[in-house]
Amino acid sequence: MSAALGAKVVPLAPQTATAPAHARLRGVTRVFDLPKSTLHALGPVDLDLAKGEFFSVVGPSGCGKSTLLDILAGLSAPQSGTAEFEGKPIQGVPDGVGVVFQEDASFPWLNVRDNVAFGLRRAGMDPAEINRRVDYAVGFMGLKDFAASYPAQLSGGMRQRVCIARTLVMQPRLILLDEPFGALDQQTRLLMGDELLRLWRETSATILLITHALDEAAMLSDRVGVMSTRPGTFIDFVETGWERDRDSRVVSTPHFGDITARLWEKLRIEALKIMSAGKG
Amino acid sequence: MTALMPRSAGTFLVLLALLALWQGLHLLVGASSLASPTQTVSKLASLLAAGEFWLNISETMRAFVAAFAISLFGGIALGIVLGVRKLAGNVAEPILTTLYSIPKVVLYPLVLLCFGLGISAKIAFGVMHGLIPITLFSMNAIRQMKPVYRRTSQVMRLSPSQSAFTVIMPAILPEIISGVRLGFSLTLLGVLIGEMFASQRGLGFLLTSAINIGQIDTIMAIALLLTVFAVTCNALMMRFDRRLTHR
Ligand SMILES: Nc1ncnc2c1ncn2[C@@H]1O[C@H](COP(=O)(O)OP(=O)(O)OP(=O)(O)O)[C@@H](O)[C@H]1O
Ligand SMILES: [Mg+2]
Questions:
Q1: What is the pLDDT of residue B139?
Q2: Number of the ligand 1 atom closest to the C-alpha atom of A102
């Protein structure tokens, strides 16, 4: 699929069109064994993520987006096909991959600071460096005033930010985010999107973001993959063509309208399929 | 501070209400059926002043500590194994639940036959009551842990022991403590019942003798002592739980 190779080229890492993808899926499928039957949840999926690319996935609920993320994260193995990260087959969780899950994964027994520092401490990093990184991430996510609070005292959106910070401090080269802003209101979501863009520019990490918000996908991404209903496959790849230093103000441009319109055009058909299947 | 005031004030009010109720009941049914609070406390004081009573307390405590230690460590270890091994857990759960719902009185002759009269029978009675609840709570703690915690420890590439000690243990601790609190009271109950049936010493035995000769103030003094002990320990465990888990 040629569209998969056409991502924006990152200035920091010069590469040619033939450079190996940062992450690559080929013919990946996933089937779940249920007590009495099997459930074909995903694929076959082909995907190339270029190094430093900001890629978003949109698709109807239950189409296999989280399943796709699990495979890239090495949390589950594909039924068939191959998955590679940095040229090596994914077996178990690869080094350099960070994940923010769809569910709240903050640890209720640790305060915000200790939550964010958790991974670094387990990795045995030098305490001064841990402090530096944690301070930065806590400030970055707007959690400074809550550094000593426990998750039970925070809102759902803030807890999700704790999880994002906990992933960011590990400085992953590939960041997988599963609907991280789902619990936030529209305004905060746009602003958090700006923060995410800022982070992406600063780190040159590759990002895969799963979202159900078309505007979020259109505004943040270099490229958006649209998935069909289950079993999810990519039915369209939309290049946005934004500059690397974009921010949420692009939502007022006509081009933004064009992108969301194209995304919706594809997704509407999929959504209608679900509706009519539900009726039948 | 402001958050603490209402709680201690509330506890105080509840105590006061209980005392008033006790005194009221005493006036209603008469001193031969229910000793008054003051009678009970003064009886307890005089009992505590006698050395013989302390011998009985230490006898009961020895059996209780042993029984609770077995229920605690055995129950948590067994529960964790059954929680991790799905199949074993599925097989064991109904068996344990059924076993526990058998009235344990029917097993007493068997226990006496195996252990004879003495401390081992008392310990066995205690364990019979306390082990299964702690096992079931610990098993469910593992089974009901949010899967995302395990996934998080995977993506953080933790070693199995890191994952066990820094994620799974703190995650299941609140449930375990609930089980332990329940197991504590039930083990104490088991030991006392054991003493009532099968012993010549201990608080349970004192209770039976007092019941036989109708010494209402002794019965109530022992009951008061045991209540204060159980309630205090429970409160301490709850506090420990709140300290550690922040929920
Ligand atoms: N562990 C599992 N066992 C069985 N079926 C599963 C499992 N995980 C997911 N599924 C099924 O696979 C399908 C895809 O699930 P997935 O969570 O990937 O969807 P999703 O696109 O992330 O949905 P949403 O947008 O609601 O998060 C669903 O039908 C789901 O019920
Ligand atoms: Mg999902």
A1: 94
A2: 27
Ligand 1 neighbour A29 (Cβ under 6 A): no
Q: How far apart are CA B73 and CA B134, in angstroms?
A: 9
Chain A environment of B171 (Cβ under 8 Å): 107, 109
Which ranges of chain A have pLDDT less than 50? Answer: 1-17, 280
**pTM: predicted TM-score of the whole model, two decimal places:** 0.81
The domain B39-245 having CATH identifier 1.10.3720.10: the answer here is yes
Cβ distance A250 to A209 under 8 Å? no
Q: Is B88 exposed, middle or buried (0-12, 13-18, 19+ CB in 10 A)?
A: middle
Residues of A in contact with B146 (CB under 8 A): 103, 105
Work out how many domains chain A is built from and give that number: 2
Residue nearest to atom 4 of ligand 1 (CA): A32
Q: Would you give the end-to-end CA distance of chain A in angstroms? A: 34
> Is the Cβ of A108 closer than 8 Å to some Cβ of chain B?
yes
Q: Structure tokens of A271? A: 């959504």
Instruction: Give the residue whose CA is nearest to atom 18 of ligand 1.
Output: A64
- The complex's ipTM works out to 0.84
Domain that holds residue A134: 107-171
Touching check for A119 and chain B: CB below 8 Å? yes
- Residues lower than pLDDT 70 in chain B: 1-6
Domain shared by A179 and A87, yes or no: yes
Q: Which amino acid is at B9?
A: A
Q: Are residues A191 and A217 in the same domain?
A: yes
Cα of A260 to nearest chain B Cα, Å = 32
